[in-house]
Amino acid sequence: MAIGTAAALSNFGTVVLSIALAFVFGYSLTSMPLLRAGMALAAVIPIALASDTLSIGTMEIVDNAIVVAVPGALDAGLGDLLFWGSLAFSLAVAGAAAFPVNRWLIDRGRGHAVVHETGIHGGPDTRVVGVVTVFGFVFGAAVLIAEAVG
Fold first, then answer.
1. What is the pLDDT of residue 123?
2. Region for residue 123 given its phi and psi (left: phi exceeds 0; alpha: psi -120 to 50; beta: otherwise)
3. Beta-carbon neighbour count of residue 95 at 10 Å?
4. Distance between CA atoms of 144 and 146, rounded to whole angstroms?
5. Distance CA 102, CA 92 (A)
6. Phi/psi of residue 124, nearest 5 degrees
7. How far is CA 96 from CA 32, 85, 125, in A?
8. Which end of the chain is more exposed for a tag (fewer CB within 10 A), N or C?
9. Which residues contact residue 33 at a Cβ distance below 8 angstroms, ignoring those fewer than 6 apart?
10. CA 76 → CA 20, 71, 86, 142, distances in Å?
């Protein structure tokens, strides 16, 4: 959303770009540890598709539906509280919507469980991810509050 807004793309172009980049980055984050571990690209692609497609799709449907539904959110600029507030809200709701989808997939041996079947568990320690997430939330909330007050 930020790239499309900064590049002054149309609302449709911004939404399409954000969806495309979500899938590219989502698949990449799943694929990189597998490729670094020596798996062939031909073996990694079906794993990434199986583990991430429904989750990313769910997040993108919910995220973009909310941003489109918030009056003026897509027309707001990068310096506007409305842009960042609607984006933060939509991502939080989309993450909450994707959580049960991911649980459902994992419970059936699908989704990210497919990655774990490889025995390769790349990526940073979950505690580091948690700390970064909390820091990002606190920082983002502080910026939004400061923008609203100031």
1. 66
2. left
3. 15
4. 5
5. 15
6. -70, 160
7. 25, 17, 22
8. C
9. 120, 121, 122, 123
10. 21, 10, 10, 20
Return d(Cα 43, Cα 17) in angstroms, integer.
27
Q: How many residues does the chain have?
A: 150
The candidate with the shortest Cα–Cα distance to 84, out of 94, 95, 70, is 70
DSSP state of 115: H
CB atoms within 10 A of CB 1: 23
Q: What Cα–Cα distance (Å) separates residue 51 from each residue in 18, 24, 72, 113?
A: 20, 13, 34, 7
Query: What are the contacts of 128-135 at 24+ separation with CB within 8 A?
Result: none
pLDDT along the chain (150 residues), means of 10: 90 94 92 87 90 93 94 89 90 93 85 73 76 88 83
CA nearest 87: which of 78, 97, 96, 98? 78
What are the tokens at 108?
């059936």
Q: Contact 122/36 with Cβ under 8 angstroms?
A: yes
